[in-house]
Amino acid sequence: MERFHHIKKVINNDENLVKRFTRFFELETIKFDSFAKENVYYLDFPLWLAEMVDAGQLSAQQASILNKKEVLQKFNEETVKRLASLLEGKSVKDSERAIDQLLHFEPEVYNVWNFPNCNPLFGTDGYPGRIPGQIVQNVLYYYTNENDLVVDPMAGGGTIIDVCKLMNRRYLAYDIKPIEKDGITEHDIRNGFPDKTKGCDLIFLDPPYHNMVFDFFETVDDFYSFISKLAQNCYNTVKENGVVSLLMGNTNWKGDGFQDLSFQCYKLFIDAGFIPIMRIAVPFITEQFERFDVERAKKEKEMLGLVRDLIIFKKV
What we know:
By secondary structure, this protein is of the alpha/beta class. It has 12 helices and 9 strands.
């Protein structure tokens, strides 16, 4: 009966299912074999969700959210099961917001992508420089297929991992200082790509820039030298007709003033042998600036930078 109560919590949004399970568990004249044969379609997924609740991997509220009709209509069962694994440890509020965003997700039709916030499902909350997973969703939708291998050599908070899990892409993720997240391996991309990445379908690049870049590079020329070598290593790693996506913002470099990093890095990837196939505007959100920053910018007649580009290259 304890399992029954868990299942009832999972399916409480579907009156017909509640009646079916109540009939089985509460009326002793019903035989299990005949009930299971008649209701096998209805039993499998709710029972799986109930097992997730029993194991403490989902709360009953999360399971109920996943079992909603609109979720099951939007996604197949395997996708919902992958989604369930990503909800582990999330609050009910974040789970509701994450699933609501997924239900309303449609691939971007235009080449300006505005995402006001991060889907809680993707990446690590509070990680510096965390990007909206919706950016990765669109990149993978347009430039990969299921089971393709995606490589992220600067994985940060692991956004690429979570999106790949949901979209059924294989992945290899690395970082010079990996966080405690399954799937990120310690590796310094300045030493090239690991051998196992050879022949991958797509490389996703979100290099360090803005203030973070000073930890690794003394001058802007050092940064461009790093990008030049990175571009060549990408060309030697990704498969023929494979894709590299480069996410890059602009910055004011100490002593060197404004740097159009996107433009300069674009040229370096062309020099490495890639051809550009799309440039997408993915502006930062205004919330990244404090009120103090805004007031200072007004006073000093200075514009705050929201420009960020996503450049897609192809190896030919």
